Amino acid sequence: MAGVIDIWHQPFTPELMKRCYVDDEEQRRVIEWWGLGARVKGRSPEEFVADMDRHGIARVLIPSLQIRSFVHQRMQWAFEPDEIHAIIHGHPDRLHGLYGINPYSRMAGVRALERAVRELGFVGAHIHPYGFELPVDHRRYYPFYTKCVELDVPVVMQIGHSAEAMPSETGRPLLLDTIALDFPELRIVAAHTGWPWVEELIAVAWKHPNVYIATTAHAPRYWNRELVSFLNTRRGIGKVMYGSDFPVLEWADSLEQIRKLELKPEAQAQLLEGSARAVFKF
């Protein structure tokens, strides 16, 4: 099915939305700060897919998120792959899981990653590094990167600053340089545009064939002009892909903002669909 691919959308059912944004005090503060309370009521899988159809969304990727609180030194979100599989399994051609990596889970986590891909049909891995206080090129992540190469699946990781109460240095784009050199076969999707180090991320993505940029959580009207130029020219066409990080962005508004950028047709097609199809092998 042709259409837009959203490479990062949070778990969407009422129960899981409540766990994410109501029950957790720190995440609830962010939702209140950004005025997103109306977006976290949740939908059933059937309602969700119907919304996808209304907005021309072909596929959505949903991570079994692993987010650790820096302030309280405990896990904020720790979704099991089976919880994500339970809400997506009825729509295997539309909804796909990403395995959330906890770097402290060691080999048990590596085995769980393999199970998620081989048995549950997950299409990649996902890292939110900040609360773990480990840079993304830390040795604790390397067994997971190795397994992703073995399974031939990409890893999506938040790169750039964190708006949460967490240190941002673990997500500096330049750290990807080392990972890409050590794992040239690993497809790396650097989410959240790398802001405020956008040019640094563009440089790494330009240098390495296996590094890509995702625009998750950043409204197109605010994208750095360097990013727009990159994705709209020969250097960057096929290297940048769309994602909402809902509830941060909504499909209707963010897609309309992209249309107003007046990108080259090939660049817009790669941004909204083509890049993700190539990286996730849809």
Topology, element by element:
Layout: E1 4-6, H1 14-21, H2 25-34, H3 45-55, E2 57-63, E3 66-69, E4 74-78, H4 81-88, E5 95-100, H5 106-118, E6 124-127, H6 142-151, E7 155-158, H7 175-182, E8 188-191, H8 198-207, E9 211-214, H9 225-231, E10 240-241, H10 251-259, H11 265-280
Parallel strand pairs: 1-2, 2-5, 5-6, 6-7, 7-8, 8-9, 9-10
Antiparallel strand pairs: 3-4
Helix pairs in contact: 5-6
| Distance N to C terminus | 10 Å
Broad shape? globular
Query: Helix content range of the residues, please?
Result: 25-40%
How many strands, which pairing sense, and closed or not: the largest β-sheet? 8 strands, parallel
Mean pLDDT over the residues? 96
Q: Could you name the CATH class?
A: Alpha Beta
What is the tally of beta strands? 10
Number of domains: 1
Q: SSE order, as H and E?
A: EHHHEEEHEHEHEHEHEHEHH
Would you mind describing this structure in some detail?
It is a single chain. By secondary structure, this protein is an alpha/beta fold. The protein has a single domain, classed as Metal-dependent hydrolases (TIM Barrel, Alpha-Beta Barrel). 39% of the residues lie in helices and 15% in strands. The protein contains 11 helices and 10 strands. It has helices at residues 14-21, 25-34, 45-55, 81-88, 106-118, 142-151, 175-182, 198-207, 225-231, 251-259, 265-280, and strands at residues 4-6, 57-63, 66-69, 74-78, 95-100, 124-127, 155-158, 188-191, 211-214, 240-241. The strands form 2 sheets. Strands 1-2-5-6-7-8-9-10 form an 8-stranded parallel sheet, sandwiched between helices. α5 packs parallel to α6 (142-151). The longest helix is centred in the last third of the chain and has 16 residues, at 265-280. The model has no long low-confidence stretch (mean pLDDT 96).
